[in-house]
Amino acid sequence: MFAPLRYPAFRLLTAGRVITQLGDSVATIALAFAVLDLTGSVVSLGLVVGLRSFMSVLSLLFGGVVADRLPRHLVLVGSSAVSALSQGALAFLVITASATVPMVAVLAAVNGVAVAFSWPASAAITPQTAPAKSWQQANALVRLGVSSSKIVGASAGGLLVAVVGPGWGLALDALTFALAGLCFLLIRVPSAAPATERTSMVRELAEGWREFVSRRWVWVVVVGFMFLNAAVVGVLQVLGPAVADATIGRSAWGLVLAAQTAGMAVGAVVAMRLRVRRLLFVGCACMLLDVVLPLTLAISPQTWTLVIMAFLAGVGLEQFGVAWETSMQQHIPADRLARVYSYDAIGSFLAVPIGEIAIGPAAHAFGVTETLFAAAGVIALATLFMLASRSVRGLRNTSPALSAG
Question: Taking Cα atoms as reference points, which of 130, 153, 152 lies closest to residue 141?
């Protein structure tokens, strides 16, 4: 289970991602309540987080090309530096009570661009840090570390925001980006790119697109997650904090998010030991568990019920995450992997800004409870769409360890 930790590059990558996620878990809560303190409006909150997501989506394709062209650990260093500066500036504005909604939106958008460059690089560099027989365990270990840091970050974030204010949560996020950048700087891995002359960025984007559309199971899952992510993120980023403010309180909402990531940690341990031929099918089926959180927010917004349902949702999400990353690494050439990851991300997150921006007005027009029921329905239908595809149900796990077993 822990064999990938023998490799220094994998340890540094995992440490950097864990540290980054620790700060991001605090910052997610801090940003939401910073905007709510400024405006008291879920519509304004949706616009801020929606703009951040939109800038991420807009920049993802370029992030994938850069991650396939340049050493991926250096792309992560640059992304961490930009994120540290933008979050530090945002923290200063909030702490000094000089923040305005346009300022917060612009700095959040800058951070979104930086994330767009880090995501394909961090996903594509993972198979360079461990041998192929350990990829499933490596993916699970990274996600276990990230989930564990989310537990601490979400719990601490809710408490920190409630006690000293959201600005200090954003300051902590800036510090963690700086520390993660140092970890990424020390990574040494062999290049994934063949020793051939580079073509234009447009040609490389076209090459990545061909890899993406040539595999039906890839684009089917991405289309499904286009709708699923819009519903999930809209609930967690916009309606969830608003419902919590009116019912269980800010610190309790931090516990709910921590419970979700505790479920992800347990799910990662399960995924490390899972030996199934149809790994992606199992992962997609587990996404049905994500229906329970919006339903609980609509029916019984109490701390203990939300904690339990968030835990179950986290277990399901992690089964899919490990299955998806392992399947991508097994079936897509390493020198094109970051570009396919970027198309995956831009498709999966394309509707997220729309969901974040639209869910506030929808709640005003139709009611919060009705909107939460609608979000649960979108999650269920998107999951069933993925499971209906034979390419998803039939994709084989090619792990050498599974074959040996």
Answer: 130
Query: What is the tally of structural domains in the chain?
Result: 1
CA R_g for the chain = 20
Task: Give start and end residues of each alpha helix (H) in 8-134.
Answer: 8-39, 42-69, 72-95, 101-125
List, for residues 346-370, the tens digit of each pLDDT value: 777 777 777 777 888 888 888 888 9
The 3-state DSSP composition of the chain as helix, strand, coil percent (nearest 5) reads 85, 0, 15
3 is a domain residue: no
Domain that holds residue 121: 8-188+199-404
Rounded to whole angstroms, how far apart are CA atoms 201 and 41?
Answer: 41
**pLDDT tens per residue across span 103-155:** 888 998 898 888 888 888 888 888 888 887 777 788 888 878 887 787 777 77
Is the pTM above the cut of 0.85?
no
CA angle 51, 57, 61 (to 5 degrees): 150
The domain that contains 240 carries what CATH number? Answer: 1.20.1250.20
